[in-house]
Write a structure and sequence with these properties.
CATH architecture of the largest domain: 3-Layer(aba) Sandwich
Distance between the termini: 59 Å
Largest sheet: 5 strands, mixed
Order of helices and strands: HHHEEHEHEHEHEEEHEHEEEH
Protein name: LysR family transcriptional regulator
CATH superfamily of the largest domain: Periplasmic binding protein-like II
Organism: Duganella margarita
Pfam families: HTH_1, LysR_substrate
Strand content: 15-25%
Keywords: DNA-binding, Transcription, Transcription regulation
Family: Belongs to the LysR transcriptional regulatory family.
CATH topology of the largest domain: D-Maltodextrin-Binding Protein, domain 2
Radius of gyration: 32 Å
Length: 302
């Protein structure tokens, strides 16, 4: 069955006259009648009842008419759909993110992207940097907001865009005497609380950056707990299990029993960036990248 046959059928059904339908279709009546007859033979039922008084739809034709109109309408929409897909305006984007990004860059970027590409379906999944890298290398996600660096083997297949640099801040159990002093704190002014930290295998750069702050202050911390998610780390601080050094954006995670303070000690900047497969030609992904770069340029100008 061809769309041309359906279009001829709908025209005859609307005119209920083969001659008028042929004029409307800019053709002669014989080939129109032959096309309708071929369609009836293909479907195995008469679509029209023909008699001396004229032409009427048969029960089969009456059933076919709304479906034929629907199919023709969808066919007319296909070029626009294809053009939108080629321009990254429709489709699916699978984006992974580290938990700290949920309190910093992720929400504003998603709002901007939703506004620009409302018909793209976004699948979000929280994952640590090591899992994101594995998912990217095995083509299970389109992009990932993670903490670098990328392993050498990953650099051969992935591209990377820095998105955010931020200092580390203290997350402390509320009620500590040292918190009575306003402003920045030094590690030496704090009691020897156990340190709650990411496992190094999960995020080597963040783990090493945190320990370097203690090392530069001449302090060897006692590792009390290791936790994978920022929410868990903050919850453990809230429970009085220990203290933590977290990226500054995590201070947006308000939790009873936790107080965040800036450090007077020098702290390295923790970077968050977006990684994606270099060979991923998805228009949806590249639309996301273009918007992200534009948002980063605008924020740099502010």
């Amino acid at each position: 069955m061809e769309l041309r046959q359906l279009r001829y059928f709908v025209t005859v059904a609307e005119e209920l006259h083969f001659g008028k339908a042929a004029l409307r279709l800019h053709m002669t009546q014989p080939p129109l009648s032959q096309t309708i007859q071929a369609l009836e033979e293909e479907l195995g039922a008469a679509l029209f009842e023909r008699n001396r008084r004229g032409v009427t739809l048969s029960p089969a034709g009456t059933a076919l008419l709304p479906e034929a109109r629907r199919l023709l309408a969808h066919a007319q929409e296909l070029p626009q759909l294809v053009q939108r897909a080629a321009g990254g305006e429709v489709g699916r984007l699978t984006l992974a993110f580290v938990s700290s990004a949920d309190y910093s860059v992720l929400p504003p970027f998603l709002r901007a992207y939703r506004a620009a590409y409302p018909q793209v379906q976004i699948t979000l999944q929280e994952a640590t940097s090591d899992l994101q890298l594995d998912d990217l290398l095995h083509n299970r996600i389109d992009a990932g907001l993670l903490i670098p660096p990328l392993p050498d083997k990953a650099k051969e297949q992935l591209d990377y865009l820095p998105v955010l640099n931020e200092p580390l801040v203290l997350a402390l159990p509320a009620g500590l005497p040292a918190l009575k002093k306003k402003g920045k704190l030094t590690l030496s002014a704090l009691p020897p609380l156990p340190l709650i930290i990411f496992p190094r295998a999960i995020s080597p750069a963040l783990h090493d950056a945190i320990l370097s702050v203690f090392r530069d202050a001449g302090i060897t911390p006692q590792i009390g707990q290791e936790a994978i998610q920022m929410q868990t780390i903050v919850s453990l601080v809230s429970a009085g299990i220990g203290m933590a050094l977290v990226p500054q954006s995590v201070s947006n995670l308000m939790r009873t029993g936790v107080e965040y303070r800036a450090l007077a000690d020098a702290t390295p900047l923790v970077e968050t960036g977006l990684a994606w497969r270099r060979d991923n030609a998805s228009p949806v992904l590249h639309g996301f990248l273009d918007l992200l770069r534009n948002e980063l340029r605008k924020s740099a100008l502010c």
